[in-house]
Every structure is written in structure tokens, then in C-alpha cells.
Design goal:
The chain is an alpha+beta fold and 327 residues long. It is built from 12 helices and 10 strands. Helix content is 50%, strand content 13%.
């Protein structure tokens, strides 16, 4: 299957029965990060998003991943939509042989939360909504055999998260290998619920009173501490990048955790903070460094990550105190 581009989108959508008149279709690239082709398509009657997974990610280091992950993403989005209908886009088409899916486009004017955060616009209301969404996902699939068997494959998660983040960190910082290995063991053994695997601000679109969570290509039945630690790490790193906006980022972290820790089964703070430390260090030393951190900021993140990893904080409140001290 050739890689899709804006020029090929019209023919593809007509072939799949999602559009009628190819000459009315206008498509443009959304970039798709490093792992996918993502196209924004206007068919004349509606807007769609076409996503095709790449076999090799667009980074400096060699980074390969199974293309079937996009089919898993479609399945996960459908599962999440059953639990939180207003927080996930509809999946309109899946072509497993072409490693391509089509989903509905976000409402006009919606923005990705990462862009807002990087500008210092840190809204605890969005963070709380995300905490509730993730808590519903984790609690609603906790120890349920139907989800355990449906999302049993860990290969894409290993290729796109465990190896490039945790194992690469171990190779580049062998002095930290012990506690990092403990978190890898946790991900292999503490398989409790359906995990998103990329629950981060860049995958949140928001506007008006709503939001969507996207990009579930590494969804799997696994360790929920990865999801909670992943989101908190992004908020911590934004504070490292913009120290003056720390109060807003800290408020978001507290709101997210408070909303997540609702009734029903949930992962605890200790497991979450263990992943937070590993992920912070991984965004400095791993295959996917945080692109918005400069050299000095990477040094701050490295020092804080080592401190959180080797001296585990007792609570999120204590971790935030250490963040403030590091800045």
C-alpha cells in the first residue's frame, strides 16, 4: 500500500464510499507527528480525518513499529466511545489492509491542549475533565476479561513506548537501570485495564465546553500507572519550560489527579509517580526528547527526574513541591 498524501485522498475516499465527487475534495496534511500520515479532508459536505500508520517513525534514531497499530486504535476509540460518548470522535472507516482509518473531524475552532499549555494557558477545568475521562476508562475496563483478550497484544506499546522510552533510558543511563527495570516489570505484570498509552495534551482537542481524546494507537490492556504518569509528566515538563506559569500547571496536575481518583478501581499515587519519574528522564535521554526544552531545561528535567526516581515522593503534593524547588 503506497503512503497516502493530499493528492491521493480524494480517490481513496471515493473508493471507500465516504465521498462521491472527487473533484470537490480538498485535502491537506496535518503532519501526524512522527508516526503517521494524517490528512484533513473537506469532501464538500463534511470534514474528515484520514490517518495511515508509518512503518518507520520520522526521528533521527531508527524506530520501527507494526503498522497494524492503527486498526487497534480504531477498536480502542470505539471502546472508549461506549464509555464516554462525548469525549472521543466517531470512527467512520477502517481499512486493515491499507493500515488506514477515517474518523470524524473536530468542531470548528477546537485547539490542541498542548499548544495552549505551551503558551501558558493552563486551564484546570480541562485537566479535571481529562481526569474524569481517564478514570472512567480505567474503572470501566478494570479486570474485565473481554477487554483483556481484545487488547492483549503489547507489541506496538513495546515498540513505541517501552523500548524507545524505558529501555533506551536504561541503555543511556545504566546508573538508573534498577528502578527503571522495576517499572518495566510493572507494565508486564500489572495488567489491570484498557490503557491509552499516549494520554497527553497533544492528543487532546478542546473548544467550547467539550473535548476529545485522540491517538489510541498503542492502546493495550496493561498498567494504568503509565497513563496517569504520562499526563502528569507532560504537565511537569511544561512547568520546566515555562517556570513563570508553574502555578497554573500545578493546578492542572492537582485537578487531573483529584478528578481521576474517583469511585471504583484506580491506580495509586506511588505507581503513578514511579512512571512520572521514568517518563521525565525518557523525554531527556530517550528516542523522543521533548522538543520544546532547551539545554538548560533538559538539565533541570534530568535532575528532577533522577530525584523523583531515586527518592520516591510520598504524594503528588510532595512531587510538586520538588518541582517548585527545582525551578
Amino acid at each position: 500500500m503506497p503512503t497516502l498524501d493530499p493528492g491521493g485522498a480524494a480517490g481513496y475516499l471515493v473508493e471507500r464510499g465516504l465521498a462521491v465527487a472527487a473533484d470537490e475534495i480538498v485535502a491537506r496534511s496535518l503532519g501526524g507527528g512522527v508516526s503517521n500520515v494524517v490528512l484533513d479532508v473537506d469532501t464538500g459536505s463534511r470534514r474528515l480525518v484520514v490517518k495511515q500508520s508509518l512503518p518507520r517513525l520520522r526521528v533521527e534514531d531508527e524506530w520501527l513499529a507494526k503498522r497494524e497499530r492503527v486498526v487497534t486504535e480504531a477498536d480502542a476509540l470505539r471502546a472508549y466511545r461506549e464509555l464516554t460518548p462525548e469525549s472521543v470522535p466517531r470512527v467512520l472507516d477502517v481499512a486493515p489492509d491499507r493500515f488506514t482509518i477515517v474518523i470524524e473531524h473536530a468542531p470548528p475552532g477546537w485547539l490542541d491542549w498542548k499548544s495552549l499549555l505551551l503558551e501558558g494557558d493552563a486551564d484546570p477545568g480541562i485537566a479535571a475533565a481529562l481526569g474524569r475521562v481517564l478514570g472512567t476508562w480505567h474503572g470501566g475496563t478494570w479486570d474485565r476479561e473481554e477487554f483483556r483478550s481484545r487488547f492483549a497484544d503489547l507489541e506496538a506499546f513495546e515498540q513505541l513506548r517501552v523500548d524507545p522510552y524505558y529501555r533506551t533510558l536504561m541503555r543511556r543511563r545504566p546508573d538508573l537501570a534498577g528502578p527503571v527495570a522495576a517499572r518495566i516489570e510493572s507494565m508486564a505484570t500489572q495488567r489491570r485495564c484498557l490503557c491509552h498509552g499516549d494520554f497527553s495534551p497533544k492528543n487532546v482537542l478542546c473548544g467550547g465546553n467539550g473535548l476529545w481524546v485522540l491517538d489510541a494507537e498503542v492502546a493495550h490492556f496493561g498498567d494504568p500507572g503509565f497513563d496517569t504518569g504520562f499526563m502528569l509528566n507532560h504537565l511537569f515538563l511544561k512547568a520546566v519550560h515555562r517556570p513563570a506559569a508553574l502555578p497554573g500547571y500545578a493546578a492542572c496536575a492537582r485537578a487531573f489527579w483529584s478528578a481521576y481518583a474517583g469511585p471504583g478501581p484506580r491506580v495509586g499515587e506511588a505507581e503513578t509517580l514511579g512512571h512520572l519519574a521514568c517518563l521525565m528522564l525518557s523525554r531527556v535521554h530517550g528516542k523522543s526528547p521533548a522538543e520544546y526544552l532547551d539545554e538548560d531545561q533538559r538539565g533541570v528535567a534530568d535532575g528532577l527526574g533522577v530525584d523523583l526516581l531515586l527518592r520516591p515522593p510520598a504524594s503528588l503534593a510532595e512531587a510538586l513541591e520538588r518541582l517548585e524547588a527545582a525551578l
